[in-house]
Amino acid sequence: MHLLKLKNHWDSTLAKKMRKVEQGDFDVRIDTNRKDEIGWLSEVFNTMVHRIKMLIETTFKQELLTKEAQFKSLQAQIHPHFLYNTLDMINWRLQAEGHSDLSASVQALGKLLRYSVHEESEVTLSEELENCKDYLCLRQSNKDPVFTYSILSNGPAELRLPRLTLQPLVENAIIHGFRRRRSANHLEIRSYDAQDNRYCIEIEDNGLGMDEKSLDKVLQRLSEKDLLTENSTHLGIANVNKRIKFMYGTDSGISIDSTFGTGTTVRIIIALNSLEIASKKYYSCNMYL
């Protein structure tokens, strides 16, 4: 009778752990010091889950390496020096003819191109913010839509981020948040030390916002455990979230608050206790390229 109860208890424990694995939690373990068959089966389960986790992480790393190799191949075909020289020539001619506004746009475009095709995959927060300024300069010159912006950074400028972390979020705010409004649009980027040993970067707009159903769809995409599911051909919110988590761990990532008719805030949370391991992860990724 005792053995039957013990077996039923273990079966229940195994079922609960397997359900967690099914939901994408590969950190679950069955703790036991038993030396019998139940103990052996527990060790087999723990080993199997660990191997699955390592396989997923290894496959995801390989996918990142492949995408970066493809990007470098495309980069080599662009002949960036020719583009830079051409843009510089256009810039000087515009300045000579007194078109200072167009000259500023050409300079911003040149800086954006240099930034996007640079080989280094990891940059500082200050570099990301400077790239956002160039992008916003170009968007404002188009006046479609008309908007204002502000950047308030209060924290470590040397904080490391994957290249092109902020620009996709800023672009998303402008395209989707301001798409039906021609005036009174404002975008704010701010970074600061948050509570509980965390650092926060926020992109807030006062645009259309999302209703509850639309927001739930976006949040569902962010919560997906399948790191290899990415149908989009551009860097979107889900892609940025994956890269942040890959760099800083599962305690970091993106959260979103939105109210229809009021606006949206996209928040990047970085666990400061993960800063030490971030550069190691990216070094181990880049050393194979």
Describe the structure.
The chain is α+β, with helices and mostly antiparallel strands and 289 residues long. Among the domains are: 76-117; 136-286, Heat Shock Protein 90 (2-Layer Sandwich), CATH 3.30.565.10. The protein is built from nine helices and seven strands. The longest helix has 42 residues, at 37-78. The chain is elongated and about 85 Å long. The N and C termini lie far apart (60 Å).
Task: Report a brief summary of the structure.
By secondary structure, this protein is an alpha+beta fold.
Helix content: 55-70%
Strand tally, please?
7
Gap between N and C termini: 60 Å
Question: CATH class of the domain at 136-286, please?
Answer: Alpha Beta
CATH homolog superfamily of the domain at 136-286: Histidine kinase-like ATPase, C-terminal domain
CATH topology of the domain at 136-286: Heat Shock Protein 90
CATH architecture assignment name of the domain at 136-286: 2-Layer Sandwich
Beta-strand proportion: 15-25%
Q: Give me the secondary-structure category.
A: alpha+beta
Shape: elongated
What number is the mean pLDDT? 79
How many helices?
Answer: 9
